[in-house]
Amino acid sequence: MFKNLTKFIVNQMDPHKQFDPVESIADNEHFRPLCLLRKQRKSNRIFHPAPYYQQTGFTLDDVLLPGQDAQSIEEECITGITGGTEKRKGTRESKQGIVIPKGCTLAFKTIPLQIKDKEWDMRSFPKKKRRRIPMSRKIEIEPWLTEVEICCQIFTKLSPDLLLIILNTVKAVMRDKNLLQELRQKMEEVPEQDDGYQLETESPDLKDLCSTLQHSPRDHLLQLAEGITYVLDALHELTEDQLLLLLESLERKIVSQQLNLVANLLECDKVKRKGTFLVDARLLFPGEEEQRLTIALVELSGVQFQEDGSVIPRDKPFEAMAALFVALYALNILSGSQI
């Protein structure tokens, strides 16, 4: 809920897309002026056009030599968007609320720190314009499907035993976001390490996967790490409620039907126009419980179903819907279903 709120605030207050929303209230102290961050990757995702940033736990003060004054540097930094005491209702299903304490960092702007020839410099460069689709342009599923197919194609080549190990691991991290973050970090480190890199973990839910990947050929390991990272990134974009609903969907074996429904929503050109559009009734479920579960899952990605079968988009849902599509696509493969 906190991530959804900060995204909404940034969209309202920052039309030029200079700031990034803080995704967790527990992490807000790590995204304040002078905090050092690590840019995790250069490539963007269809469900997350901006880069990911990882906290380091250090500030600029920690790396300055004694006698250097960081006060003047801090004055030049943009302090970010902070909140006062604020309450906001969550989803209409859960009726939850969230309290934002005064001074909590809601968004941040990064400034590259350049180190060259034993000297460092901090310069503020305007961010490149993020890849956006014009509102009037018709959205087609094919370009996005191409990215998903390429990133997930490694899973189609795996044995049933390995698919089961990955599926069980993914299900475990869907129940625990701290575990999800641990696995993301390990998978992101794989390309940066040499052949002697040890995939070790103290988490019982990750040991089977880490042990299996440890004995994989290097080329195969890199492909698996890239594919798993892509799926984990998509899961990271979903709410905790959505992750729980996806787990229930797996148990009910309705992921394939949900995938078709979300693909249908992405294909509709009005999903970016705040207009109302009809959903193919054949994509809804005859069972009341399955239909309730699916509608709740999809509505958390920014659309609202009406009793007449129409759908109303809210809050520019394309990126959120794309993340849900990637999650369903991967789970469909890992669970052995046919798309």
TrEMBL record:
Pfam families: Gasdermin (PF04598), Gasdermin_C (PF17708). It is a multi-pass membrane protein. It is found in: Cell membrane; Cytoplasm. Residues 147-310 form the Gasdermin PUB domain. One of its GO terms (molecular function) is phosphatidylserine binding. One of its GO terms (biological process) is pyroptotic inflammatory response. Its main location: membrane. GO terms for cellular component: cytoplasm; plasma membrane. Belongs to the gasdermin family. This is Gasdermin PUB domain-containing protein.
